[in-house]
Automatic annotation (TrEMBL):
Lineage: Bacteria, Pseudomonadati, Bacteroidota, Cytophagia, Cytophagales
Keywords: Ion channel, Ion transport, Membrane, Potassium, Potassium channel, Potassium transport, Transmembrane, Transmembrane helix, Transport, Voltage-gated channel
Transmembrane segments: 27-45, 52-71, 136-158, 196-220
Superkingdom of this protein's organism: Bacteria
Gene Ontology molecular function, alphabetical: voltage-gated potassium channel activity
Presence of keyword DNA-binding: no
Keyword Ion transport: yes
Subcellular localization, as worded in the UniProt entry: Membrane
Entry's Gene Ontology cellular component terms: voltage-gated potassium channel complex
Organism: Persicitalea jodogahamensis
Name listed for the protein in its UniProt record: Ion transport domain-containing protein
Chain ranges of the Ion transport domain: 47-212
Predominant cellular place of this UniProt entry's protein: membrane
Xref: PANTHER family: POTASSIUM VOLTAGE-GATED CHANNEL PROTEIN SHAB, VOLTAGE-GATED POTASSIUM CHANNEL
Length: 259
């Protein structure tokens, strides 16, 4: 019985892996389209056609999530790892079931916009990570652009018409300054706006540290390539290893002769 259960789990894992590989490309593409539609919705609102496209993508995401949830051997662990994804799939229901007045009221709350922005950004981060794979620096640059443009749309939707956020261009400038840790003279006035600004600032500090370390590593590596550099480069280390190996061989040969 125990062996049959283990065999069933292995089969589920294989099927889940196969489905994940099959749907990986389409889901990544739809994730980027979903993010673009979110930005358009926050800034200008969606037309009927774009709204239908958004709902269709949302339904496809739900199907993908349900199938993977059913196949996942440890369902609780799967939900824990994808709780933000689950939230991002629940919130668009407020757009679909507009016939209920209380849902329309909930949909107007800024807090839901903040949750929607964060959860959608989480999905986009996963899509970017799957696309870029080992290109770490390229991933960070693209992710910074995604966070800047999406964060600006969120700040504009939440804070307008407050000074500094009365247009998307101004919100984009403010967000870019936050991401680069330069700061701005304007500050958000709503609790949701402050929460989003705090997340953007945290991201900016993290990225600033990563970029600084990457640039330092690059320049140290360039400096180490020069012969007169104070820092030992890879070629110097390789040459030193050769000399140590030669010295060790010579000592061993002398020992053999003396023996």
């Amino acid at each position: 019985m125990h062996k049959m259960k283990q065999q069933l789990q292995r089969e589920r894992n294989r099927l889940l892996y196969a489905i994940d590989r099959l749907l990986d490309g389409p889901m990544i593409f739809l994730g980027f389209v979903w993010l673009v539609l979110l930005i358009v919705d926050l800034i200008w609102g969606l037309s009927k056609t774009l709204d239908y496209i958004s709902i269709t993508i949302w339904i496809l995401f739900i199907i993908d999530f349900i199938v993977k949830f059913i196949l996942a051997p440890a369902k609780l662990d799967y939900v824990r790892k994808n709780w933000l994804t689950a939230i991002s799939l629940i919130i668009p229901a407020l757009r679909v079931f507009r016939i209920f007045r209380f849902l329309r009221v909930l949909r107007s709350l800024r807090g839901l916009r903040l949750v929607r922005i964060v959860s959608s950004l989480n999905r986009s981060m996963k899509s970017l990570s799957a696309t870029m794979k080992r290109r770490a620096f390229g991933y960070v640059v693209l992710l910074s652009l995604v966070v800047t443009f999406t964060g600006a749309a969120g700040m504009y939707a939440i804070e307008q018409p407050a000074p500094g956020f009365d247009s998307y261009g101004m919100a984009l400038w403010w967000t870019a300054m936050r991401v680069t840790t330069a700061g701005s003279e304007y500050s958000p006035t709503t609790p949701e706006g402050r929460g989003l600004a705090f997340l953007i600032t945290l991201f900016g500090f993290a990225i600033f540290g990563y970029v600084t370390a990457t640039l330092a590593t690059f320049f140290i590596g360039r400096d180490a390539e020069e012969k007169n550099a104070p820092v030992a480069g890879a070629s110097d280390v390789a040459e030193l290893r050769k000399e140590i190996a030669l010295l060790t061989r010579t000592i061993n040969e002398m020992k053999d002769k003396l023996a």
